[in-house]
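Subject: design request, 513 residues
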């Protein structure tokens, strides 16, 4: 960071250099904007790793209403229907816009988009680029577009550590970089920081994705929605590597089957079998593993010899583990993959803090409900980036004063991973959630390097404890059924801390709701 940061004062700031952040910056052009990225653009972020594509109703047998029906069914009663309908209607045009930035989507010989099938979609509607290299290809195109847009200043190697807030309004961002702490004054900040995979031992996401945006918003007093809903992907490559390589749902879409070590197709009693919604399938695989079995994906017949051509990234990960999917079974197990909950936002991405927007996985728009439909998240990021940009551009930017930079420790989420992996996995119960909340409370209140991750984990644990039902990705053995009324949840850090302190005194926090 060599430039004088005061020259950027007053510009809107985007925190995060994944697809949501880059698209928001591009949509804001020619408005001047500052984009802060923890790493070099494209490095260590889950957008680059995305295999699955973008879902949209392009097919002649498809329309946004069918896409909406699948989304609502997967979301298990918790989607915001209006928001979902708006996003899915806007999806085809937004994806065409991406192609306009140079994303080389896979096409038929006649030039129309190739459409793949994924679980719980009733139509072929997933677009990919270079097979399973979709995220990498989108990032390549967007990074090139951002680097050649003069109104976007990208500052790499800068980690946002706190939001400056006065009277519930944003005043700027404290960040740390190689030369020490810096303060960027601005009244308009967009969080596009991704998810929470790094808070789990078994994840398909980069370990550096540990909920930094949630922590920034939490310390700023923002309201969160549906934090308890965490998606586990049923088929991560089972082996010693961490993070785990994803074996895309598209492989099952092309006909691969799940079997166990005896060769038994153990999903026979699961409606939809290999193409059941992700929460249902992840639980079925989890239960089979818990009963002492091993689980494999059998792609030997289909896609068979075509595997490496269709799925070069997965084939390469398998090769690294000594597996040839055209000939060998692929050992799999579920792993943390996506966070449905996040900072609560309205239809323009505005949070409850004035001047703070959120876009992408860090935000909770209401599209995903209790269980995200596959490939709806990149679509959401691309569609919502435009609405966030319009909202930011339509909000007058007022000058803000420089402040002394403050120092905050760099986050180190390691102890938090153990608590979250144990209590907030595929199968949960009240005792485990209480134990996690009690263990996370002192860390969240401390000045320890793990305090931000602990604060995020604590909010999730309390939200999960308060949801006394099983729905979508949130399954509790002590409350195995749906509640009669489906209700989205809301929480703040202050409320989670108070609830966890209360747990210290009374064992019956759940009864209080
Ligand atoms: C996958 O390819 O299975 C993942 C796609 C997604 O998470 O939406």
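Subject: RE: design request

Done. Sequence follows.
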């Amino acid at each position: 960071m060599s430039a004088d940061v005061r020259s950027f004062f007053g510009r809107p700031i985007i925190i995060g250099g994944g697809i949501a952040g880059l698209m928001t910056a591009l949509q804001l052009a020619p408005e001047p904007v500052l984009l802060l990225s923890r790493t070099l653009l494209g490095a260590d972020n889950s957008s680059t790793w995305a295999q699955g594509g973008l879902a949209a109703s392009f097919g002649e047998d498809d329309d946004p209403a069918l896409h909406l029906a699948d989304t609502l069914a997967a979301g298990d009663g918790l989607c915001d229907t209006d928001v979902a309908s708006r996003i899915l209607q806007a999806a085809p045009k937004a994806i065409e816009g991406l192609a306009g930035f140079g994303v080389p989507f896979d096409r038929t010989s006649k030039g129309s988009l190739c459409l793949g099938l994924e679980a719980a979609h009733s139509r072929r509607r997933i677009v990919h680029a270079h097979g399973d290299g979709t995220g990498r290809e989108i990032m390549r195109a967007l990074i090139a577009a951002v680097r050649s847009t003069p109104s976007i200043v990208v500052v790499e190697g800068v980690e946002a550590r706190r939001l400056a807030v006065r009277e519930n309004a944003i005043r700027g961002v404290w960040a740390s970089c190689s030369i020490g702490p810096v303060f960027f004054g601005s009244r308009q900040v967009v969080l596009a920081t991704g998810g929470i995979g790094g808070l789990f031992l078994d994840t398909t996401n980069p370990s550096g994705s540990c909920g930094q945006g949630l922590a920034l918003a939490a310390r700023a007093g923002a309201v969160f929605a549906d934090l308890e809903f965490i998606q586990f992907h049923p088929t991560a490559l089972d082996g010693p590597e961490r993070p785990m390589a994803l074996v895309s749902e598209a492989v099952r879409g092309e006909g691969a089957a799940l079997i166990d070590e005896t060769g038994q197709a153990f999903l026979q009693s699961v409606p939809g079998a290999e193409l059941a919604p992700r929460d249902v399938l992840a639980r079925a695989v989890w239960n089979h593993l818990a009963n002492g079995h091993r689980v494999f994906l059998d792609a030997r017949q289909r896609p068979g010899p075509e595997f490496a051509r269709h799925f070069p990234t997965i084939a390469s990960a398998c090769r690294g583990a000594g597996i040839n999917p055209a000939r060998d079974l692929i050992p799999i197990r579920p792993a943390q993959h996506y966070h449905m909950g996040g900072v609560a936002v309205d239809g323009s991405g505005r949070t409850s803090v004035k001047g703070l927007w959120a876009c992408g996985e860090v935000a909770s728009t209401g599209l995903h409900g209790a269980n995200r439909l596959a490939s709806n998240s990149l679509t959401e990021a691309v569609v919502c980036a435009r609405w966030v940009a319009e909202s930011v551009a339509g909000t007058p930017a007022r000058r803000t004063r420089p402040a002394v930079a403050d120092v905050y420790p760099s986050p180190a989420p390691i102890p938090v991973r153990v608590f979250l992996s144990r209590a907030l996995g595929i199968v949960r119960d009240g005792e485990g959630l209480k134990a996690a909340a009690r263990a996370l409370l002192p860390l969240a209140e401390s000045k320890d390097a793990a305090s931000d991750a602990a604060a995020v984990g604590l909010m999730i644990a309390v939200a999960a404890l308060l949801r006394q039902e099983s729905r979508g990705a949130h399954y509790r053995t002590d409350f195995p059924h749906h509640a009669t009324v489906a209700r989205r949840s809301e929480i703040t850090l202050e409320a989670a801390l108070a609830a966890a302190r209360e747990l210290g005194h009374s064992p019956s926090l759940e009864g209080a709701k």
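The mean pLDDT is 94.
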